[in-house]
Amino acid sequence: MIKVRIIPTLLFKDYGLVKGIAFDSWRRVGSAMQAVKVYNLREVDELVFLDITATLQGRPPDLETVDELADECFMPLTVGGGVKTVQDVQRLLRVGADKVAVNTAAVERPEFIREIAEKFGSQCVVVSIDSQRLAGGAYEVFTHAGTRATGLDPVALARKVAELGAGEILLTSIDRDGTMDGYDVELIRRVSEVMSIPVIASGGAGNYEHMAQALRDGKATDLAAASIFHFTQQTPLEAKTYLAAQGFHMRFS
User: Looking at the predicted structure, is the pLDDT value of residue 244 above 90?
Assistant: First the structure.
């Protein structure tokens, strides 16, 4: 039985960690290195590190920062932000990333996903899809840290990148991000129902029951979260304990 992963997300901007609401109103939440050291002690299954300004600023991944963090990170590390070429992927893997997250480039040049999968394997390719709900109930994919509309439906994009070799989908609701009002269960379900690869739900977790809803009703495979761990006393281990009591298969050390 595949076990659910609890995956904290670290958003990196201008040399520090930030957290916003709906991809806006960013505020500092501390040091990336300190966060890694804390999560090392908290039975976290994996960690996602996203440089949210790399693509907007037109720069490649910050290899020096990733190298430093990877040296201290005792769990699988997914790194995203500014990943555009196979060389970017290769360099990130060499400095310690276990997986790479691709967002904007997956929309601008979908064949890039196939190139990564063929060279390094699908297991290291995470396609990050940021989606916003439109009037009428449809959803649209946004790129460039949520600043550019694409006209794409997240279900269609997820299907396409899965066919090209993506190993996982990191699905984030822009509307729910940072609100702690709960995941967008409908968005998660729409994507999860057509996927044969893991779908990591992201955006909106405020309590453990929200996590259970994303798994039970949204059919998510795994859970990413940030604000719940930054701004409350709730912890990854408590989340696992709660979800295990609800019948979900969790990982415990």
Answer: yes
Cα–Cα distance for residue pair 99/118, rounded to 1 Å: 14
Contact 217, 187 (CB under 8 A): no
Q: Describe the chain by its helix, strand, coil percentages, rounded to 5.
A: 35, 25, 40
pTM for the predicted model, two decimal places: 0.96
CA dist list (Å): 32 to 121, 170, 236, 241 = 28, 20, 17, 26
Q: Which of 127, 66, 68 is nearest to 98 (CA)?
A: 66
Q: Tokens for 35?
A: 């966060």
User: Which of 21-35, 164-178, 194-208 bottoms out in mean pLDDT, i.e. has the lowest?
Assistant: 21-35
Q: Which one, of 138, 134, 119, 126, lies nearest residue 202 by Cα?
A: 126
Q: Give the Cα separation of 218 and 200 in Å (integer).
A: 11
**Contacting residues for 189 by C-beta, under 8 A, at least 6 apart:** 217, 218, 219
Which tokens in the block code for residue 240?
């696992």
Q: Which residues contact 214 (CB under 8 A, 6 or more apart)?
A: 183, 185, 188, 201, 205, 220, 223
The neighbour count for residue 14, using CB atoms within 10 Å, is 11
Give the integer Cα–Cα distance in Å for 105 and 22: 21
